[in-house]
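In this supplementary section we document a worked example of the pipeline. Step one takes a protein sequence of length 689 as its only input; no multiple sequence alignment statistics are reported here. Step two produces a three-dimensional model, which step three serialises into structure tokens for compact storage. The input and output of this example are shown verbatim.
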Amino acid sequence: MACHAPCIYKRDAARLERRVEILESGLGLEKLKQAVEVEKRGRLNAVNDRDRLKQRLEEREEAVRKLKETIEYYKDRLVWAEEAAEKEKASSDERIRSLKKQAGQLKKALSDAQWRLEKVRKDLAKQHEKELKQQKASYEARIMEMEGKYQAELAEKDKRIRLLTEHLQEGVSGKDGKNPGEGKTITIEKPKTDSTTSSIPPGQDPNHPTITNNRTPSGRKPGAQDGHEAHPRKAYQPTTVIVLPPPREVLEHPDDYYAIGPISKQVVSVRLVVEVTEYQGMKYRNHKTREIIHSEFPEDVGHLEVNYDPSIDALATYLHSVCNVPYNKIQELLREATEGNSLDISTGKLADLEKKFSGLTGEERADIAERLFRGRSMNIDGTGARVDGRQRQVLIMCNKENVLFRMTGCKGEKAVEGTPAEEYQGVTISDSETTFTRLGGKNQRCNIHESRYLKRASLNTPDLTWSSRMREFLQRIQHERNVGLEQGKRCMPVRERKKTSSEYDSCLILGISEYREHFPELFRNHLVRSKARLETCAERYGIDTDIASPAGGGAGKMRKDCEIYPEMPADALNALIKDINLLIRLMADKEHYLLFLEDYSIPPHNNDAEKCARTVKTHLKPNGGMRSEEYAGYYADTASVLETEHRQGKSRLVKLGEVFGRSVKAIKEKMAEGCKKQKALEATIPGEA
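The serialised model returned by step three reads:
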């Protein structure tokens, strides 16, 4: 605005000079007035133009100021962005260097792992080669030992043959009334009775050797080896979770670490806690009738001042009936495991638990008996139990999913009276006891029992080969049956069954020929004694002439066994007689030993019943027998239900809790029924008001 002022003043001076000239020239007043008005308007317009220009100038100055501020802001932003870019670039470079370093470390670790793997492979190859050499040396030593043994046996047999030949040439075999060739070429060892040849458990074997650990140390660390999957302990559902704080290094340098995943460890503990719920009420007396009433207790509360929850009854019964813990030990365990609020239960209460369980499970035992009766097959066996100082019998009836024990006072047919086995028409599996073999529509004999007796026979008379051949035959057909079941077969084909039957007969014919050769009179006497059993198979095995009439004795009478071999020890003679009877039993009951080939669902052994018998024996051992026949029956009832639950894959402890949970309701129902009977009886008495 200052630059335009001189121009305006010059213009105004020019105008004034012109006006003076006009006045001097004598213009009129009107023109002068017009000129003055024009001048005024010009001045006014000039002032207005000046204000507008001034305002425009201010606006432009304000716009310039704002533009400068914007330029400064963007300059600051540019500087900040450049600094951030520099920092990001430095961080990226550091990250790249770290990743490169990690990649180098991983590459080195991979190389080390490959080297270690190759070393382990070479070590394993060397170890395997070393083991092969050791096995080869062991096998060679074993072969040399066996060859020496066989050579010694052959030399001994040659010596026996030579002596026998000389003996026969001298004619000595006909002296003293003995049969030729009898007892001269056969060796009878002292009978061996242990768990492998009889029903004696392994723990009662005389002078049983200590089982040594023949495993050679491998030198490897425990746990999963390289290349094998680890099998850690089973994890449980946590009841309490404690979240741990980060390590001190992470808290101090959080930018140096980042989370890669959770890690957890569990501490499992078990506590036996006593929970006591006390219900308190008030007693009231009617002042007129003197009747006493009290607050009504819940239905699950018993009638005694102190009642035990079904969980305690279930635990105590499980410890006694399943774990075979005596009552006094259960009492000590519950007392010592519940310190603070010690649980002290009398042994009388514990002894009545099986009685209570037996009374509450009548329907379960009836269902077990019905399922056994309707089953395709039933395993039957018996075992001895000492009750009140006397020997009693426990009858066992079972199949794959059901078990029923019955305490009986005797053996024989009376023992099965009133049981599902009495009228059973399916297939029974048992040993050779006559009481059990007569039960059921068909009977499958236990081949495992006979295998033990065959092993005993091979040990008693090692020069006779029929027993070892028969034992191998029975084991082989049982294995074929197991393989057939795995392959989905239902039975052995008819052609193979006939072939198996012929092989069975050939083993027995070999035994007949060996006993005829070495023990003719003794063998013939026992054939005659078993004439009734052998009539159906005498022609098949060629013994019809042997059982036609008594042999020996001169006048048609059989000599006693001890008279035939007066110099043979009694135990060796008894063992020989058992072996002959075993052969007779296998001849007479052939169809009972091969019945399982017609239906693979029938087991060829009585192992299921033997396992149940072991349950009874292990219960009797720590408890020292049973006090009375009544409580022995309660144990049999309890064991029947619990063993059935176990075979069906269910929890026995849960079953005990469920059954004892019924007891409170059952007791109250019995008490209510007794009150009703008492009131009905009082109503029938005359004169009562």
